[in-house]
Amino acid sequence: MPERARICLVDDDIFVRDALSLGLSDAGYQVFAAPGAAAGFDIIAHREHIGALITDMNMPGTGGAQFISEARARWPKLPIVAISGAASINGRATADVAAELGANATLLKPFRARQLAELLDRLIEPPTQT
Question: Of 53, 62, 58, whose CA–CA distance to 80 is shortest?
């Protein structure tokens, strides 16, 4: 299978991070996983051609909401997918909150890595041939 885009996956839950990394790798994505926002910023800033960011909305320290907002400001064209185990945040739908902050899409846990890969396929522009 040809390799697809490089993905930055940020989730503080090692089991979620490992399961999604494995599933996305099986789908052909190159995954750079991080346990929190600071490591996620480092990956995006220092790796070439990160094609998308996937981040959990509920993490200790810099939470997903702040991370999405800051990532959107720094990388306006980067596709961002918010993931969350909570359907609402402060009484509002998680998807609405994530979209306001700059996420292109939201998936609520539990979901399959295949669903995430299909979503990424739609969000990421294919690389141009040179």
Answer: 53
Check if the beta carbon of residue 31 is closer than 8 Å to that of residue 7. Answer: yes
Average pLDDT for the chain:
92
What are the extents of the domains in the chain? Answer: 8-94+109-122
Of 61, 55, 72, the C-alpha closest to 11 is 55
Architecture of domain 8-94+109-122: 3-Layer(aba) Sandwich (3.40)
32: Cβ–Cβ under 8 A, 6 or more apart, which residues? 6, 7, 8, 9, 43, 47, 50
Report, in angstroms and rounded to the nearest whole number, the Rg of the chain calculated over CA atoms: 14
| pLDDT score, position 129 | 52
Q: How far apart are CA 98 and CA 85, in angstroms?
A: 13
The pTM assigned to this predicted structure is 0.92
Q: Is 2 left (phi over 0), alpha (psi -120 to 50) or beta?
A: beta
- The pLDDT of residue 6 is 95
Residue 5: φ, ψ to 5°: -65, 165
Q: For residues 12 and 56, is the Cβ–Cβ distance under 8 A?
A: yes
